[in-house]
Amino acid sequence: MAKFIEKHKRILILAEMEDRKLASITFELLRAGREIANKVAGSLCVAVLGHEIGDVSHEAAYFADEIYSLNHSLLANFDPQLYSSALKQLYEHIDLKVIFMSQTLDNLSLAPVTAFKIGAQVITDCIRVTFEAETGYLLCTKPVYGAKFLSTFKLEKEPYLVTLRPKAFEPIKPSSKLGEIINFDPVIERKILKVEAIENVKQESISLNKANAIVSGGRGIKNSEGLDQLKELAKALRRHFIKVELGASRPLVDARLVPSSRQIGLTGEKVAPELYIAVGISGSLQHVTGILGAKKIIAINSDPKAHIFQVADYGVIGNFEEVVPALAKKLEDLS
Amino acid sequence: MRQIHIIVCVKQVPDPEGPAESFKIDPGGKEIIPVGLPPVINPFDENALEAALCIKGTHPANRITVISMGQKLSQPVLRKSLAAGADDLILLVDQKFKLLDSPSTAYVLSNAIKIIGAYDLILTGRQAGDWDFGITGLLIAEMLQLPSINLAQKVEIKNEAVFVERLTRYGYELVKAPVPVVVTVSGEVGELRYISVRSLQAVSGKPIKVYNAEDLQLDPQKLITRKIIELSAFHAQRECKFIEGESFQQRGENLALTLRKDKII
Question: Which ipTM score applies to this complex?
Fold first, then answer.
């Protein structure tokens, strides 16, 4: 592999995988990466990290110019030190201008550690990325102060490492030209592994970010009976949407009525379903920042002044105990 | 077992639970100004302090040192950490600390930590409630060449090792690392314990160490300001169509009918 010199600039995407396939966020990263690559006449690259990952690289070849397959038994499970070590070796081997990662829990660890190792300027949770035309510096926009404001930061020192918020970019379409798959074997030593994994505990397996519709409860849902009504509503919605999930704002999680894996908001998942129904949720900025991508938002709340109505498309003022069963019944009838 | 020394890094932020209208963009367009909103300890950093207090509670000789840095810090706000049970409070205050980027912040904090001396555990919140980067804690670890564990929902120390339940997409992973180690803490750890007015009064005269950039022998070239080129209100507002109906049940039914009419279902 010859190291590209001169002005050839690579934009690297870190592939996210799920069930041994590219996860949907990867296509959003690819789209963001392709736009940047086109602007600097650079190439779009993908790094696939893992163990025995053959098919994923082939899948990625439909979307990018170069696919770096980093296959190593020590990469089978995520660890920020091992992964960043592998990425650093790749960085030292090829010219990289920008690295995009998705804003996932794992990458919240990987991005800062990798940035430190390769001397990259790092910024997290961006929803827009462009180049400043006259200087070539990177401009990154992200929500700050609980999504009350958008702030655009100027990054002036290459390489840039940016994590992108899911659902902020449209997914890329396959190209007619197949990219080249390059096997890159990183040297990874077990001794750099300082944090030892003892047990991986899988709690309820849910993917809120794949749901077409989400019914979410907040402080107004005081007990498990209230939660049961939301479950009934979710059941009725399944007649209209393929995948319906139950979500929650922080108070319900704190009250241990709902596991934290279902929490939506700043510290939980950020979701973008076709329909989001917020029941008994006041609409704190912490929660609202997680639902901005929803196509339609319905708010059901007994307080007409609740902030959630300001970010909703449809509002019902009333006690949810009466509104929700009637809504569920009618949704069943309409199917 | 020997005594454990925990360092907790806390940031002073405008209260993130404050009403939305109390945050304004300053006329220069590069800063957010809280209007009539008192500062607080960043909520995730309070979680970190709570995690530290739980470990301190396992042995009477265990110690907690809290450090905070900023251009201007409120002593009454940060003394809350002493009232909660921390033993020492160190403030890093300098005009040069205004709007520093995350690596510069980690540089300042890690230099202060080197001065403090021996420690077993450094705790920070997973992210700050203002700029929401979530980077500083892990950079401190890299700069001090320590192992780090991000997003802890539970932290314990047993026999010279830290055991952490770190959040994963599917639940959590129990991991172990030798001390000293840096751990960032998530809200699942639990809220900071209740602090009585009496305990706040009891620490009001307790001496606090204050250092500036010079005391820490910082390289001014490494104190880099964040480059913000634009700040704007994020318009999440939508036009809300309120569903009418004589009873709450009827409103529920009418909502379903409206969704059908608007082809959403």
Answer: 0.91
